[in-house]
Amino acid sequence: MLWKDLISSSTISIRRNKSRSALTILGIVIGIASVILMLSIGQSAEGLILSQVADLGSDLLFVEASAGDPTSGPPSPFIEQTITLDDQKALEKTGMFTAVSAILASTNTVSHEQESQFASINGINEGYLDIFPADLLYGRFFSDSDIAGYAKVTVLGKDLANDLFGQQDPTGMKVKIGSTAFRVIGVFDEQGTRFFQDLDTQISIPVTTMQTDLMGVDYVSYIVARVKGDVDLDYAKDEVRFVLRDEHDIDNPTRDLDLDDFYVSSQSDAEDIIGVVGSVLTLLLSSIAAISLVVGGIGIMNIMLVSVTERTREIGLRKSIGATKREILQQFLAEAILLTLIGGIVGVLGGILSSVIIAVVARFFLDDWALHIPISAIILGVLVATGVGIAFGVYPAKRAANLDPIEALRYE
Amino acid sequence: MPVPLIKLKDIHKDYVNDDVVTSVLHGVSFEIQEGEFVAIMGPSGSGKSTLMHILGFLDTVSSGVYEFKGQDVSRLVDDQLAIMRRNEVGFVFQSFNLLPRTSVMENVALPMIYDQVPEKKRKEMAFDSLKMVGLEHRLEHLSNQLSGGERQRVAIARAVVNNPSIIFADEPTGNLDTKTGVEVLKMFQELHAKGRTIIMITHEQEAAEFAERIISIRDGQIISDTTGHKRRTDRYSK
Questions:
Q1: How many CB pairs under 8 A join A and B?
Q2: In what order do the strands lie in the sheet with B20-32?
């Protein structure tokens, strides 16, 4: 049998059962489309996070509480909060940083008269703006004395200010966080999102006030420090560890990160971790999608088996006019592959289309969402579809090829 | 005496099913020359179908020798049998066995696909063959849009399309009414007149009488083999 005839006879028999063929490939279409969609979402999300991390600048160090080295094993579920404002001051004293900010984060109800919002609250200090630059729409930012004096003052995110006060300038007015009253001294201009958090709906207060008046704790969530231009980042990391071990009375001459009760990371560490997490997530999502491909393949096999049974007499006839086993096998295999290939192509188009739709929708919420459709996913999709066609087409095709011509001709 | 097209010597065929041996043919011998029109006649269970399957390379013998064009073909295996069917044999079946929802043209051209005949040549040959059975005006009709008689004519066109050495017809009138049955039998006579070799399997005496030679078979053995009786061309009743 010529190649051309093999393909055209497969096309004819697929066309002979249009609606059944369409239903058969539906499983493959969905499978391939979801694999591509998942790979696309995974890559786009990873790209988004990485771009936000990159926006922070490569000269930032993060210090957070940790039971040992979080990259060397599973994280401990119970982490003692060990980072304090004393640590911040100790880091400032090293002279390696242009700014050091301790940050304590929480959530609470923020209200003004009848208006009330549930918001993220950031306890920060005067160095914050040197690390995460932002403009003020109204008023001023925290001063040294606000921090040192446990002042009950606050700077609002733009949208939160709008929700509570409307269009007017709220400086000098009162808001309540929980039941504690604060005086508004400023409003941030629009900041957008960072790590999927909408900064414009957040409220900031002095970290000292947050510790004593709101939470009654002596720790902070983490410390961010911006390294001076002439200081090597890895050197700075080691210095931070040295200082903090001293502060925390940790005896760690071997510099074993597992003995520390804190963890120092930089933006590039964060990128690495996010990269790994992103790949794992993408793999997970696509594996789930791949299961639907297997299910789709089984669907193909079922229909091909039905088709072989239904066309038993046709097979008998083809054998009686001289088709060899091999030729019958080829024909049914070609049909299965053609079916899955069509499914694969439709699935790729569907996957691209749905990725585009998702990207369009995502941009409403996340400005920086960029559409990624990995070429490898498309190639993979088509290859996998063909593979599924072969894998699940072989069994029905063998059944067809091994039919006895006499019995096949008599089959009712 | 020329080499016979078919020569059977003491053919036996047994089927083994769960240790039970069923003997279908025991000791069948005959010769068929090129250009003959032979009816193999017998009641159901006589072994005539098995005989046709062996002659038509769909089945193999248990013992005995089958010579085709002077060559021993009794020990051929699957693929060799397929090649013999492809090159030497055309079949016409009781139930037509056309591809459903497929054009008359494509049905007739089907055997040549396995012969790797290029598409243009296939169409020409299929057209010639269909013209011969008087269906050249039905080329693009689908097989299921035809009457029974037309379907059998398509099947005949398909059987002769690649000029086989021999045509087997297995109860070709079994699914047809009397009038169309006669038309089909006359068509075989026409083919025979043009020099074709035809072997027809039937259980009906009236149909068998359209052939020039009748081999009667019963219980796996030949009981009579007559040639040159008065041939029927006119009436035929079931």
A1: 72
A2: B20-32, B6-17, B63-68, B71-72
Q: What is the DSSP letter of A219?
A: B
Q: How many CB atoms lie within 10 A of CB B113?
A: 24
Residue B152 confidence (pLDDT) above 80: yes
Name the residue in chain B with its Cα closest to that of A3.
Answer: B116
Interchain pair B99, A314: CB under 8 A:
yes
A356: tokens are: 């585009």
Query: How far apart are the CA of B230 and the nearest CA of chain A, in angstroms?
Result: 33
H or E element at residue A101: strand A97-112
State which residue of chain A sits closest to B119, comparing Cα positions. Answer: A5
B83 contacts A9? CB cut-off 8 A: no
Q: CA torsion B81→B86→B88→B93, rounded to 10°?
A: 90
Q: Which of B86, B101, B118 sits opposite A322 (nearest CB)?
A: B86
pLDDT tens readout for residues A8-47: 888 888 888 888 888 888 888 988 898 888 888 888 888 8
Q: How many domains is chain B partitioned into structurally?
A: 1
The CATH number of residue B183's host domain is 3.40.50.300
Would you call B181 helix, strand, or coil by DSSP? helix
B165 part of a folded domain: yes
B184 lies in which domain range?
35-52+83-227
Instruction: Give yes or no for residue B230 having a pLDDT over 60.
Output: no
User: What pTM was computed for the model?
Assistant: 0.71
For chain A, give the mean pLDDT. 87
Cβ distance A2 to B113 less than 8 Å, yes or no, reads yes
